[in-house]
Amino acid sequence: MSFRLVTTPLDAELTLPAQRAGGFPAALLPACIAAPGTEPLLDRLRRPGVLAVTTGQQPALLAGPLYTIHKALSAAALARELETRWGRAVVPIFWVAGDDHDFAEANTAAWIGADGTLRRAALPARPAEAPMLPLYREELDPTIGELLSRFHASLPDTEFRGPTVAWLGRHYRPGVSLAAAFGGALAELLAPLGIVCIDSTHAAFKRAAAPLLLKALEASGELDRRLSERAGELTSAGRDPGVAVGGGASLVMIEGGAGRDRLIAAGGAFVTRRGGERFTLDALRTIAAEDPSRLSANVLLRPVVESALLPTVAYAAGPGELRYLPLTWPVYRGLDVEQQTAVPRWSGMVVEAHVDRALEKFGLRLEDLEEALPALQHRVLRSRLPAEAETDLARLRATLAERYAEVSRTAGSIDPTLVRTVEGRRDRALDGIDRIERRLIGHLRRRTETEMRQLERAHQAVYPDGSPQERVLVAPSFLARHGPVLLDATLAAAAGWYRGALESGAGSA
Prior knowledge:
Radius of gyration: 28 Å
Helix content: 40-55%
Mean pLDDT: 90
Strand order of the largest sheet: 6-3-2-12-13
Number of helices: 20
Shape: globular
Largest sheet: 5 strands, parallel
């Protein structure tokens, strides 16, 4: 392989209960996204007592950042391990959160081009006055074709580039919603690995979730109070609750004139936060019965809905989710829903061969690339100054400091106010030495411009713009370089990660 995977250590043991009642609701089978190879997966979901390891993500352009795939493969790896240990069917399920309305986050993509530079693309911005529609109602326009063409042209010419872009093109098409494109692309990619993608905005799913959303509205005052208490407990313990609570905000969103909007308790009814539309509880009951597609769960209620509807034994969560999930237990208890176990998703990075070559060339470790690029380049160049230059500059600094100290003592004996003047002159002289060093490094930089570009490309490949690779670069850019072997390698890495964390007796069927 022309890459290696570096796994973030998991310093924890995981204990998961095998005694949860299983069984996937037959009414939700139509919400599973169809793709080649999904029918055998649906047969597995029909098995009596089946359990699930779940994860999910809001839709995004070009199948989303790499961590989206990491979450899905984490669920698959853990499901396989638990199925082997427990001797009962455990199916990995990826929840496509199409109700999300953060278009500004979903409409951008970044990747590394064939020339090693960071490339970016975005869909046309949502007009400021436009309603904040959920992403399953945001349709792609004809610019998506041009975007895919630019993506294709910028990638290295490998045997996987064409098939990867063709796969995206089958789903990211004009007139298709961003959520449907994302869900369809993932379903096709992940089905061969045994992963089911489920559309949480499907009519069958909306109907099944509506009673629980209505129950959360009916108990909104008590849930708001308990969540505020829980947030206070976490804060007192030095933990960040992760999500703001209180102020009468319910856990339910509704589609209204301003798009997807939060329902806020007000005077015995509910008012939408942005649009100011007023709904009585009876009116919301009617909507839940007749048009449940308008209702959706907020971030704290979503995992409760999932656990209520799916036989979830574990949820593979990202760092942000792990921060706020401890806040949710009053919601589970208040709605009488069994809480699934949250486990960390697999985390790591793809280190390509050119990165390893650069590390070896410059005598660096992978961790050194966490440093900001300008500082790292300066450090590397400084290390390449001739030894005598380093020695001479250090000697000059020491000599200046020593001589100015002598002058400062003499000046102080004459008039103490002169000491500051002498120190100012000393600082200017030392700054002059720093300028000389910078000039030396600048000339060295120009002489090693090609090498500095190699270092920059290595840095961008793993910490693009200073952020972790998996949070910035879209997964298809790696698939276009390395093909399906990347998925297999990541799945194997995640399996080993979980295997080491699970206790030897992690439960029995």
